[in-house]
Amino acid sequence: MNGTLRNDSRGDKVFSLVNGAIVTLFFISVLYPIVYIVSASFSDSNAVVSGKVWLWPVRPTLEGYAAVFDYKMVWTGFKNSVVYTVTGTALNVFLTVLAAYPMSRKDLYGKNVFMILFMFTTMFTGGLIPSYLLVRELGMLDTIWSMIIPGALTVWNVIIARTYFQMSIPDELLEAARLDGCNDFQFLWKVVIRLSGPILAVITLYYASANWNQYFNAMIYLKSQDHYPLQLVLRDILIQNDVDTAMLAADPQDAARREALKILLKYALIVISIFPLLVVYPFVQKFLVKGVMIGSLKG
Fold first, then answer.
1. 0.70 exceeded by the pTM?
2. Contacts of 174 (CB under 8 A, 6+ apart)
3. What is the sign of the dihedral through the CA atoms of 19, 22, 28 and 30?
């Protein structure tokens, strides 16, 4: 028996070591590209072009970020992304709560039918062309609403929020609130919302991340560059190499220098585009873990 326990313990140790090694390798494979991009954005442009940057910045400089600040479209895209993210996320969370809470109630008549209709939209869609025609007929082309309305509600987030409400808001609490004179809207605002911090943080982070990173709708629905989000500006620079080099902080006569600076600008833009989410995530991490665990347990 003791021998069996020792064998099991040895097997557990081997499993832990192998598992730890695999997780460590996976972590490094994910972390290294981010470290490289950050290091390249702070390195000398010639060092980046010549491949001298591996891990740490080479001849550190802020030249790339200075070029970013001199590039007008970056400021315009950043402002638009902030507007789309803040406005869109507020509407997303509002609609998600309004859809999820009623379907968490046992006394909602026909809630299974509503749930089937919600799920139907995840399996079938009209496609890109009907969506474009709909947005056009609604007069939302080349407006802020074309970036917000088409993705205003995500069914998966509704399911997570509904499950959280079902498991975390007891029926007895609703009955007690009714005895105190609360109607459904007062109960939702004064009780449900205040007890649902974790799930609200989760869906807010999900929606904010999606709104901040979206560029496909902008490609389809936006025509004016003045309405482009930061991600579309970044796409044009990274994929199409669309940079007005005359606006960069470099000698117009030095073509090689300008080309090297364009590469440095790309890395600096990537860092700037991911920086807001990296700043926000630590503040909602504890709510994220709790909300996902509870919201997904039954869903």
1. yes
2. 187
3. negative
